[in-house]
Amino acid sequence: MAVVEELLRSEEGGAISFGNHKLSQKAKVEDYKHAGDLLKVKTFREITKLEKNGMFLYESVPGTSVLDFSEREDGVEFLVEGDEDAQITIGLNDDTEYEVFVGGKSVGTMKTGLGGKLSLSVELGAAGEVPVKIARV
Length: 137
Description:
single chain; 137 residues; mainly beta; Chondroitinase Ac, Chain A, domain 3; seven-stranded antiparallel β-sheet; six-stranded antiparallel β-sheet; globular
């Protein structure tokens, strides 16, 4: 299991890893500086949330551990791990269509609304790390 013991860390190549789905009590890291941005993470077994510069970026219910989360102009990509299936919401561009890949397979296209949020389900129970890629169409 690849939980992020320090709750939030910078990776080589500009990615970040965050969250710890094994914690029984809430924990957070605020004002973490990464690539000119301020990040905030709140995590434990029931929920994991990430904000960038005060804006919503990631949320999972229940909590997850996220590895190598990288944002690009055309979407995001990361590995996610948890003890049970998770509902994940990602903050992206408003009113934009994305193709979503889970475990290397396309699960179809989804369109964000005015809030720019995209929600997906990921089967995690005993699956280990599951790759997720969300790419603008």
